[in-house]
Amino acid sequence: MSSLSSVFLILQFLDEVKFKETVHRLEQESGFYFNIRYFEEMVTNGEWDEVEKYLSGFTKVDDNRYSMKIFLAFIT
């Protein structure tokens, strides 16, 4: 089983047992899965520190020009 498959199985289990924060932390730390619904929910609720922290698990501001645009669109 590949590490990607393993991570998805773990994410599925954690979601089923309602470990919401753990799910999002594993998504962020593994970089394997970007949960757009979770991200949109944080943006809608104005949780800008959490938006930045979650997004930083997948890309950094200075990775490339698209990363810069994403951060500027949501953070500023």
| Mean pLDDT value | 82
Largest pleated sheet? none
Please tell me the total number of domains. Answer: 2
Q: Which class do the helix and strand fractions yield?
A: mainly alpha
Q: Helical content, roughly?
A: over 70%
The radius of gyration is 13 Å
Low-confidence parts = none
The span between the termini is 41 Å
Oligomer: single chain
Overall geometry comes to: flat
The sequence of SSEs as H and E is HHHHH
Number of strands: 0
Q: What is the percentage of strand-forming residues?
A: under 5%
Number of helices: 5
Describe this structure in words.
The chain is mainly alpha-helical and 76 residues long. It folds into two domains: 1-33; 34-76, no CATH class. It has five helices and no strands. It has helices at residues 3-16, 20-30, 36-44, 48-56, 65-75. α1 runs antiparallel to α2 (20-30). The longest helix is centred in the N-terminal third of the chain and has 14 residues, at 3-16. It starts with a helix and ends with a helix. The model has no long low-confidence stretch (mean pLDDT 82).
